[in-house]
């Protein structure tokens, strides 16, 4: 009886204590998206901290009333669940990874992927993003890095029930993320022994070079995770996802690294690089000032939107990383209208 009661309390919607993505008011939300605008826009210089916000309760983007370095915004509210003490708790699990961790030196042998997850036996969130040196170590509290102001950045947070984290951790395995701070308490092993090993930077073998997992958010929204390991040496967009899903993709990634991959029409489904983005404001900016990584299907009849880890860049063909995709029509509409100009073949 007591256990049953506990079980009920755990996932009850009546109490807003469940670990989840949090919106701009600090209330639980199924998913949210953030598009932080670059400092340099066409004809204007911004703060580099303002951002567009969209969540599962909304129809389209709005400009946030907050700056991304403020704890009142959705990312700050979401991470406060970790920073306020959950990182010391033995009843929840967390893991933070970033190929460019705060303080620690960059090591190119890890996957080009960034994120943080926090969950208990009921549920939690997975926040994946493109921001180097972020987030900070939990004992430091919320810090948005100076370096993260210059370029545009994107973030996707989804609330998942406990069991979905097995699938998520399995996907992480292929990407070889650089975990720089984690806690997997005794009570969660052996179920999460894989995460423990990854957190301890142990080598865990896997038998394919790519993996696809269907994920279902706490409210039943479908997301699909596509991940590749360093062994799949190709561009994730043109060489895999566009062909697999049979869509023409418009791709926004940062291509300043000197080895950009041009728009590609060699295979049946084309991958075209976005050149200029039209954000709210209107604020126009060039892709070379945008460190975000996202793509949309060109055609409205097959709505597909993905947010991810990898740039269209030759060097990153040799890195682990992934994309989280959705067929949600409103998300597609929101991103498709941002495309101001792209490069044909
Ligand atoms: C956020 O950045 C702005 C501009 O640099 C600064 O004035 C403000 O104090 C910062 N806020 C926080 C909470 O760090
Ligand atoms: C979990 O933490 C609580 C409070 O810190 C402690 O009393 C308890 O013994 C711990 N449980 C385990 C299994 O470590
Ligand atoms: C980078 O990481 C790999 C794999 O963990 C390790 O073998 C290597 O020594 C690291 N290199 C540096 C420079 O730290
Ligand atoms: C990382 O995480 C552990 C466990 O939560 C914590 O004790 C440690 O102080 C953290 N910080 C660093 C810098 O590793
Ligand atoms: C187009 O993309 C495919 C898959 O990534 C690649 O194999 C091919 O070489 C590319 N074509 C050109 C002209 O770059």
TrEMBL record:
InterPro entries: DNase_II. It catalyses: Endonucleolytic cleavage to nucleoside 3'-phosphates and 3'-phosphooligonucleotide end-products. Residues 1-16 form the signal peptide. One of its GO terms (biological process) is apoptotic DNA fragmentation. One of its GO terms (molecular function) is deoxyribonuclease II activity. Keywords: Hydrolase, Signal. It holds the Pfam family DNase_II. Its EC number is 3.1.22.1. PANTHER family: DEOXYRIBONUCLEASE II (PTHR10858), DEOXYRIBONUCLEASE-2-BETA (PTHR10858:SF2). Belongs to the DNase II family. This is deoxyribonuclease II. It comes from Knipowitschia caucasica.
């Amino acid at each position: 009886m007591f256990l049953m009661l506990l079980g009920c309390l755990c996932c009850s919607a009546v109490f807003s204590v469940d670990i989840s993505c949090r919106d701009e008011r600090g209330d639980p939300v199924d998913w949210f998206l953030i598009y932080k605008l670059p400092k340099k826009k066409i004809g204007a210089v911004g703060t580099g901290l303002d951002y567009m916000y969209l969540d599962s309760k909304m129809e389209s983007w709005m400009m946030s009333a907050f700056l991304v370095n403020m704890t009142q915004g959705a990312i700050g509210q979401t991470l406060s669940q970790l920073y306020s003490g959950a990182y010391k708790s033995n009843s929840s699990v967390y893991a933070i990874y970033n190929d460019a961790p705060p303080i620690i030196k960059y090591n190119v042998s890890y996957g080009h992927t960034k994120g943080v997850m926090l969950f208990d036996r009921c549920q939690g969130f997975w926040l994946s993003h493109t921001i180097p040196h972020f987030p900070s170590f939990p004992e430091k509290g919320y810090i948005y890095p100076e370096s993260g102001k210059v370029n545009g950045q994107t973030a996707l947070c989804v609330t998942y029930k406990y069991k979905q984290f097995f699938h998520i951790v399995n996907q992480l395995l292929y990407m070889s993320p650089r975990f720089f701070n984690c806690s997997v308490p005794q009570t969660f092993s052996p179920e999460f022994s894989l995460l423990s090993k990854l957190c301890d930077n142990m080598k865990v073998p896997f038998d394919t070079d790519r993996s696809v997992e269907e994920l279902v958010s706490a409210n039943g929204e479908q997301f699909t995770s596509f991940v590749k390991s360093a062994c799949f040496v190709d561009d994730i967009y043109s060489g895999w996802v566009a062909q697999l899903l049979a869509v023409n993709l418009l791709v926004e990634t940062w291509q300043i690294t000197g080895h950009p991959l041009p728009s590609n029409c060699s295979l049946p489904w084309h991958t075209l690089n976005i050149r200029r983005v039209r954000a709210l404001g209107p604020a126009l900016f060039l892709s070379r000032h945008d460190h975000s990584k996202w793509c949309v299907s060109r055609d409205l009849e097959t709505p597909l939107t993905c947010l991810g880890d990898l740039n269209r860049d030759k060097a990153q063909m040799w890195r682990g990383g992934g994309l989280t995709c959705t067929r949600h029509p409103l998300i597609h509409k929101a991103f498709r209208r941002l495309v101001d100009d792209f490069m044909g073949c």
